[in-house]
Structure formats: C-alpha cells, structure tokens
Amino acid sequence: MNAFYFGASVRQLFGCYHPATGRSRGGVVICAPLGREYLLAYATLRYLARLLADAGYDVLRFDYFGTGDSAGEFQEASQQQWLSDIAVAIAELKDLARVDRVSLVGMRYGATLAGIVARTQDTIDGLVLWDAILGGRDYLQEFGVMSDGRAGPAEGHGIALTTGMIRDMESVTPDILSPELPRTLLLAQDDDLAGLEEHRSRLASAGAECALLAVPDIPTWRDERIGASGMPVATLRAIVAWFA
Amino acid sequence: MPPFREKVVAFGCDGRLVGVLSVPTAPRLLGLHVVLLNSGLIHRVGPSRMHVLLARDLAAAGIPTLRFDLSGVGDSERQPEAMALQESVEQDISAALAYLSAEHGAERFVFAGLCSGAYDAFHAAQQDSRIASVVLFDIPGPFLSWRHVVYHLKARMLRPASWGRPFEKMLRYARVLRHVSGPDTGSTEIVYRPGVRKPISRQRMQSELEDLLARNTRLYFIFTAGVPGNYNHHSQFRRTFPKAAKHPALRHDFLPECDHLFSTTAARSRVVSLVRNWVVSQAVRLGILVLASSDIVGQLS
Questions:
Q1: Do the Cβ atoms of B6 and A50 come within 8 Å?
Q2: Other Cβ atoms closer than 10 A to B168
C-alpha cells in the first residue's frame, strides 16, 4: 500500500493505492461514506482494498475534499466538488496502474456519488452500490433536517451540512439507478430489500445487468466495533467474487 | 494558500506506520513538535476529524504536528510478531519520536490523545522526558466519588428514557478496545485479539501524577460531558487529586457543552482554541524560539 497526496495543489486529496498482486485485472476506486459512517467503515474499506488487490485489481481509496486527511474544511466542499474528486481519483488510478477502465465501489452516500459519476463516464466497467442512499430526504433527517426541507441544526455524524449540500442531497431519489449504469451490484446490509428488488427488476427489464446481494447484518458503517470483530469478511469476499 | 503544508510520512520498521505531518510554511517554533495519538480504533483523523483540525491549527500557529496510526489501526500495518498491546504502543511511540528527531530536528514534544489515546499519552510521558507537555481528553481514570454518583443518578432521573438500560452505556464507555497485533495468517485473513486497557487505580495515578509534576511535565486534562460514567462535574478532578490539582504545572477543564467525540462544530472550535493557546504557552515557557507566532503569543501575554 502506498499512501500519498494527489490532485491540484490547492485541493490535495489523500489517497491509498493498493497495487494488484500479479497481472492487473483492472482498477477499482473506492468511494467512502461521509462523516462518522466513514470512521466506522474505514477498516472494512481498507480490508476490501487488500482483498481486491490480492485478487488482481489495482485499488485506490481516497478522501474527498474537506474530509479525512484531504485538504479543506467540510463546509467548503460541495457535492459537485466530491463528484469532481471521484473523477480525479479515477484519472489518478488510470495513470498509476496504467489501466484504461475502472470500476467503482461506493458505500452509503459514497455509493450515491459513485452512481452519479458512473452515469456520466463511459470508462466505468462495474459498480458496487453498498447501502446506497436512494432517498435524500430520509438521509437528511439523520442530520436534523426536517422532512419538509427546513434545516434544523443540519449537524450530525460529526459533520455540518451546508445549504448547498442539503439541496443536492434532497434531490437524491432512486432515479439514480438508471439503465445507463454499467454492470451493477446492489449490496444491502441495511436497506429495504423489497424496494431494492423492485429497482433491480426495473433495471433488468430495461436491459441493464444488475444483481442484488442481501447481507443481513449490523451495517459496517454503523457498527461501533469499528473493524475488529465487526469486520464483514463474508460480504467482502462476495464483492470480490462478483468482480471475478 | 494555507499557512501550512501536509505530507504523508511512513516510519518504523519497514515504514509500516503511516501518518500525516502538518508543517508550518512560515518559520516554526523551533524544536517543538506535537504528536496526536489514536483514540481506540478511530484512525488518525480523530473523532469528527478533530485531529486534522487541531494539527492544521497548530501548524498554522507555527508548531509542526504529527497524527499517525498505531500498529493495526487505520493505515498502519500490524506488528509482525505477536506482542502485548502496551509493548506495541510503546514501540510505535518510540518510532514516532525517533522519526521526528532524526528527520525534523524535534527535541521536545507535546503529546495529545482522547480516551485510550490519553491513556497512551500519559504513559508515554512517564517513559520519555522529552515529552514536556501532555493534553489528555477524557482519560479513563479513577474519578468516581459519592458526588459523582449523585450527579450521575440525578441526571438519569431527569431522563426517563435511560431508566431501562442501567449501566449499559457506562460499561460500553469503560471498555476501551483495541486489537493487538498477531501473527500474519495470510494476506486475506486478519486475526483480532481485543486488548483491554487496564484501569488505573487512584493510588497509581496519584503516584504517576506526582512523578510527572516533579519532573515539571505540564499536564492539561480536558473532560467532556460525553462520558458521564467517568466524569460529570467541574470539581471532580480537584476532589480526586487535591494536591496535584493545585500544582501550577497542571490544568484541568470540564467542558459540559462538549460530547466525547466532539460531534458539533462549536465543540471542535472550542477545544481546538483551548489546546492551541495552551500548547503555544508551553512553547513560550520552554523558551523555544518563537519565529512565526508573535501575534498569538502577544494575545496570550
């Protein structure tokens, strides 16, 4: 693993590159969740990167602008900035690993962002959406934002949302799951399975290649054991198997 | 451009410990470095990104600050061989001090940590006299007293929702878990063995406090309202350690508006400001040449 900063000097992003063991089978960029969910899932996502690297994939984990070790304050960031960060990370991985195409693995809001990016980039091979946020208003309630859109403290998970973030999150709906997505795995630790099956079926009937994997367990992004006994090894192996 | 820059550093055996060093772009306070330790299994950015904010603020004030992951936490590799948690932590801290001394000319250190990080910082200071000052957030300690119990029960009585889960939270907070290194069983398996910090008895902490103060180590205890099973009123430290509390080298604050993980912007701002001012005052006390931050020192005097 190689930890480093990349991107524009005024907006440096922290990244960890896990080179593929043996001949590369492609690249994978991991898109993390936000706030406290990221802290709780950190060890899991690192372990996933190791498993994928062992399976022959070049993997890049990174922190969005204003999060983790990357430059900036959270309040200076925006959804547009994070989408741009994913694009920068994809370009960085292509350059590092000398691969033409990459896949994205996103968790929670990171999955939502990955889904948005995958619809607009034509070099994405595969997409894993792990408990993606498909209803922005429900997600915002966790930050104290009222269901009618009025902002409460808008602070939760150790982060404070800006008005722009709230506006962008409010607009998130299941429509991000569109037939233009590449080969997709919907991974559910916490989500409404019936609802996800409906989305999978909708995408499949529109000709998209989409699988649903349900892993009923304490969601890793909520599990306060933080990667010790809470490491969902079977789930991670299922993701690697899906890639293979 | 910000008044600091950051770089990823790797040190220890085979560079297996990973950290980020925040360095002032202007001339710095010579010789003094701050080291931020992990709290539990939260990686080096700290709870609610507190360590990042603190490191950047301190670097902007002229003080280089390292946040790094202990073995098996965050991006640092596990120890190659099985060893006790305490031994592993001591080795990692020694490696960090050696790196900062050799590569950056560090001579004196300020250590800071939350919860298990405070515990580790407290013990590191006893073992290395170059650690001149320590900031301890919510150190799990022997602060129980009748007054504490009365305050705790009174608070619970006012929160009927908590009646149904007696001591559950206290027990959860009391457990400070971290996995210890173990033999590598292959790249696709991780073996975890939870390590539990031994509670510090009142007598032992009293004795260790006296040793540190006799050595003129400066200690800043900060307690939040987030661990009511550990600390819940302003006079608790003074009542537990009356002699040490009067010592001019020791400061203690109770911040009832802050939770254990500094979840709100206001809590983070408050703590960053308190710690920065205290650390800069320690640099001045140590006679460390101030080249960059005369404005801040001016505010303190």
A1: no
A2: 10
Contact B20 A16 (CB under 8 A): no
Which chain A residues touch B43 with a CB distance below 8 Å?
A: 39, 42-43
* Cross-chain residue pair B192–A229, CB shorter than 8 Å: yes
| pTM for the predicted model, two decimal places | 0.89
What pLDDT was estimated at residue B141? 80
- DSSP string for residues in A151-179: -S--EETTEE--HHHHHHHHT--GGGS-T
Identify each DSSP E strand in B37-143 by its residue range.
65-68, 108-114, 131-137
In angstroms and rounded to an integer, the radius of gyration of the C-alpha atoms of chain A is: 17
Chain A residue with minimum CA distance to B189: A233
Residue A88 sits at φ, ψ, to 5 deg, of -65, -40
A75-127 pLDDT tens trace = 999 999 999 999 999 999 999 999 999 999 999 999 999 999 999 898 999 99
Tokens standing for A39?
Answer: 């802290």
Q: Which residue has the tokens 């180590």?
A: B217
Sorted by where each begins, the domain ranges of chain A are: 2-132+185-243
Q: State how many domains chain B has.
A: 1
Tell me if A86 sits within 8 A of A7, measured CB to CB.
Answer: no
Length of chain A: 244
What residues of A are in contact with residue B263 (Cβ under 8 Å)? 36, 155-158
Chain B hits for A54, CB-CB cut-off 8 Å, are 187-188
* pLDDT reported for residue B130: 96
Alpha helices, DSSP H only, in B140-201?
146-157, 168-174
- Tens of pLDDT, residue by residue over A162-184, are 989 999 999 999 999 998 899 99
Q: Which of A156, A181, A154 is nearest to A165 (CA)?
A: A154
Q: CATH code at B220?
A: 3.40.50.1820
Answer whether A226 touches B (CB < 8 Å): yes
Q: What does each C-alpha distance from B185 to A53, A230, B100, B124, B125 come to in angstroms?
A: 17, 18, 32, 31, 34
Question: Is it the case that residue A63 has pLDDT exceeding 90?
Answer: yes
Q: Which domain holds residue B33?
A: 4-300
Two structure tokens written together for A38:
């990221």
CATH of domain A2-132+185-243: 3.40.50.1820
Q: Which residue in chain B has the smallest CA separation from A52?
A: B188
Residues B52 and B46 sit within 8 Å (Cβ to Cβ): yes
Q: What is the rounded distance in angstroms from the CA atom of residue B39 to the CA atom of residue B17?
A: 16
Report which of residues A133 and B176 the model is more confident about: A133
**Cβ <8 Å between B10 and A51:** no
